Amino acid sequence: MDTSMNQRSFIEKLFHLQENGTTVIREVLAGLTTFVSMAYILFVNPQVLGDAGMNKGAVFTATALSAILGSVLMALLANYPIAIAPGLGDNAFFTYSVVLAMGIPWQTAMAGVFISSILFLILSLVKLREIVIDAIPHDLKLAMAAGIGIFIAFVGFQGGGLITGSKSTLVAMGSFTVPTTWLTIFGLIVTGGLMAKKVPGSIFIGMVLTTILGLVTKLIPLPTHIVSTIPSMKPTFGVGVMHLGDIITKPQLWAVVLIFLLVAFFDTAGTLIGLASQAGFMKDNKMPRIGGALMADSISMLGGSVMGTTPTAAYVESSAGIAIGGRTGLTSLVVGVLFALAMFFSPLLTVVTSNVTAPVLIIVGILMAQSMKEIDWSKFEIAMPAFLTIVGMPLTYNISYGIAFGFLAYPLTMMAAGRRKEINPIMYILFFVFIILLYTINILPK
C-alpha cells in the first residue's frame, strides 16, 4: 500500500497530474492511442529508407530508439503529451531527393543529416531557432508543409502502382491488371473511410487490414515468425559520423544540410504550436516550456542521425491522445515504453510492402496539404512564391528545389508589390544562400 502511494506521489510530482486536470489511467490511455496512431512509422520509415539502400532491420531499430529517446525527453524536459519520431517528410527528402535524384550515397547523405543535427542542437541551445522561424513568412511555412505533403503523396501513388512513368506524358495511370495495385486501392479506401469516421489509429488499422488482405490473397508472403530479437544497428550505426569527410568533396551536400535544417526547423515548431493550441497550453500567444520541447527534438534528432535514421519531429498524431485527455508528459512516456516493446516485432517488416505503406503516404500527404487553405491567395506577391514552393517539390521530385523556388521568388514579388519594408532581413540572406546553393549543385550556369 505504501509503495503504491509513493509511486503515485512520485508520478504526481514529476508530471503534475492534478494541476493539469488528468489522471494516470487517462494518461496511459492517451499514450496508447497516440502510439497506435503513429506506430506505422516503424514500418514506413524502413521501407522509405530501404529504397535508398539502407538495411531495413537496422533502420527499424534506429526508428524505435529515436522515438523512445525523443518521447521520453519530451516527457521529462517539457512535460507535454507530444510524441517524437522520425518524420515522413525528412525521410522522403533523404531518399528520393538526395540519394536517388542527386545520386549521393546514403552514407554521405547521412553525414549531412549528422551535421544538420549538430547545427540544429546549437541553434536550439543559443535560442536562434525561434528567430529564424519567425523570419520566414507564415505563408511560406504553410506552402512548405503543403508541398512536402503533395510530394509524399506522389511517392505513395508511384510506390503503390497507381501511377507510372511515361516517355510521352512523364507520368501516366498505372495498370489495374497488376493484383498488388488493388492492395493499394483497398488500403486507401479503408484508411480514408476510417479517417472520415474519426476512428483513433485509423492509419495503423488501415495498414493492418491491408496486410491481412495481402496475406489472405497470397499477394504478400507469410512471415517465418512474428517475434524475434531486436535487429542489429551495425549496418547504420555511426555511418554518418564516419563519412563526414565526404561533405568536403561534395559542395552540394551543404544544400542538403541546409534543407534538412530548414525542414526540421519548421516541422516541429509548427506541430508543437498546433498541438499546444489544441490542448489549451498556449498563454499570451506563447507556448510555455517550448525550450524544453525543442531541446527534446534536437537531442533525439542528433541521436537518430548517429543510429542511422533521418531527422525526428513532433508527431501531429499526438492530437489523438490529446483528444481523449492526455495533458502531461506521462502520455509521451507511455508512447516511449510502447515503442520499446514494439522493437521485438521486426519480422513483420517483411509483410509491410510498398503497397501497404503507399496509402499511408497518400493519407499523410492529404493531411499536410490542408495547410494550403490558410495561405493568402488573394495577394499575388504571396501566391506566386507559395505556389512555386508547392508545385516545385513534386514536379522536380526534389523538396529542396521547391523551397528554393519559393525563397527566391518571395523577396522579388514583395519588392515589386511595394512591400519591401515587410521583408525580414534574414529573408535577403536566405535569398543569396539559395542562389549560392543552386550554383554549387550545377542548377545555375557557371
Automatic annotation (TrEMBL):
One GO MF term: purine nucleobase transmembrane transporter activity
InterPro entries reported for this sequence: Azg-like (IPR045018), Azg-like_bact_archaea (IPR026033), NCS2 (IPR006043)
Main location per the UniProt record: membrane
Source species of the chain: Companilactobacillus nodensis DSM 19682 = JCM 14932 = NBRC 107160
Subcellular location(s) of the protein: Cell membrane
GO cellular component: plasma membrane
Chain ranges passing through the membrane: 24-45, 57-84, 104-128, 140-163, 169-190, 202-220, 253-275, 287-308, 320-341, 348-370, 382-413, 425-444
Similarity field: Belongs to the nucleobase:cation symporter-2 (NCS2) (TC 2.A.40) family. Azg-like subfamily.
Alphabetized UniProt keyword annotations: Cell membrane, Membrane, Transmembrane, Transmembrane helix, Transport
The keyword Ribonucleoprotein is assigned to this record: no
Protein's UniProt keywords contain 4Fe-4S: no
Membrane topology (UniProt): Multi-pass membrane protein
The protein's name: Adenine adenosine cation symporter
